[in-house]
Amino acid sequence: MLKVLGALVTLGIAVVLLVVSVPQLFGLQTAWIIAQVTSMRSLAIVAAIFAAIAFALLAGVRPLRAFAGTVVVLLLLFVVGNTAIVVSRGLGDTSFAAATPDTITVLSWNTLGDAPGADAVVKLAVESGADVISLPETTQDTGIDIAESMRAAGRPMWVLTEWFDQISPARSTTVLVSPDLGDYVKVTSNEERDDNTAVLPTVIVQPVDGDGPTIVAAHAVAPIAGQMENWRSDLAWLADQCHTGNVIMAGDFNATLDNMAGLGTSAGATLGACVDAGKASGNGAVGTWPTRIPSLIGSPIDHVMATPDWTTTGMRVVTEADGTGSDHRPILVQLTRTAP
Fold first, then answer.
1. CA–CA distances in Å: residue 198 to residues 22, 30, 147, 188, 262
2. What CATH number has the domain spanning 103-337?
3. Where are the domains of the chain?
4. pTM strictly above 0.90
5. Residue 304 burial (CB < 10 Å; 0-12/13-18/19+)?
6. 230: helix, coil or strand?
């Protein structure tokens, strides 16, 4: 009976480890619990290493030797397989190609309700030469403060904000766009809540003259209890915004590449036709959340994506802003236009 029980537990552990490793094989990449565990893949590798050590010690106890030894093997296979996945997505390449007239620099930062303040955003935006700044959980007032400071620094910006209410800063998303890209107008509306992400606002802006990219400053709700269906619909809605045309999406997607599996419309695409800059630049496994743990074991849930009109020519996850108030790290991405 004990042998049968041990075999069943071992089988159960093997199935769980396999599902966590490749949830998309079972259509479980957006399932409750599986989605959360998979989104912390690097941290799961660390946990599996410690678990393997613990079971290796248990293998010294004769009645548990076979069971514990088998579990150690399963955990080591999990570590090796998942490490291969993480490495294939990129552990960080911060190199940037030389900028050209066809280059756009995108800064994205969930500010946790204006927590870092305007000065922190301005410093990073000016130093990086950002042309587009996507700021989930940032109010219009803070966006205006940022723009005024950037204008004083010789980098004027248009400010466009979407909000679902003006009580909680988390219910606002602000995007700033350089006038060098032309005049932009907001095409989402806070009165038409059905055509947006469900709980936290996304703002979409388009060039007035029709030339230049549509910019989507995205904010999907987190996959927490009671919001799983909204989270799934948010990701599907964001994918729809990137099916055709010249689009740049940037923001807090509250989802990793695993969670978004199946939402791309072509090989290599992540959402709709949009390609993830992190994976394309060798930074796909560098965590942007939370800031309290090292980036290499964090969750890469903040993204910049673009249609094939653009090639990623540089990216870095900004760690020097840790401790400024937000639980998200900013990301900087350089995109170069490859199509007229």
1. 28, 17, 28, 13, 20
2. 3.60.10.10
3. 2-89, 103-337
4. yes
5. buried
6. helix
